[in-house]
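Re: that chain you flagged

S.,

Sorry for the slow reply, it's been a week of failed gels. I finally had a moment to sit down with the sequence you sent. For the record, here it is as I used it:
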Amino acid sequence: MRAFPIIVSSPSGGGKTTIVQRLLKRDKTLARVVTATTRAPRTGEKDGRDYHFWTEKQFLSAVKKGQMLEWAHVHAHYYGIPKSSVDGLMKKDICPVLVIDVQGAKTVSKKYPQAIKIFIVPPSLAELKKRIAARKDHTQDVALRLKTAKKELKEICHYNYVVLNDQLTQAVADVKQIIGAEKLKTARRVKDLKLSKIL
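Prediction finished late last night. Pasting the structure tokens below so you have them in one place:
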């Protein structure tokens, strides 16, 4: 198999992180790319596992040095992906999974045209509001995130796949099925088949 980036997006509270975490436990050919951010850690989050928690000075320095694959200023904080994180995994033939917003997805897919893009959709905006409010932490501005969600949902047409996250188990199964089918695509298999002299 030739590794390819897998982009997973959803509005805040849509369930993308939970779905990806479950997939990673089951499939060792996938690894999450850890995003850098200047926001404060939420309860239970660890530096280097959930995010690289950087100061604004550290982040802007990495941007200036051209070390970021993509970055953005979202909800008053910086978020971005170090280039080395993606390329390092692909060299090991591991598919990098990028949990990023729609803006980041556009940038990454231009640099990696072989990437697939999956958008996770909540069952309704009312449910999304409930999920965001349930987090009860200081980093959540519910009204701002709902406004952003409405804008992000308009970008669905730019994604290869859309998965409804109404029942978590089914949503995880759907994403797993998508990735499995993508791994078997002819364009991803031909080079390996030629090397093994089947073709």
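What I noticed first: The mean pLDDT is 89.

Talk soon,
D.
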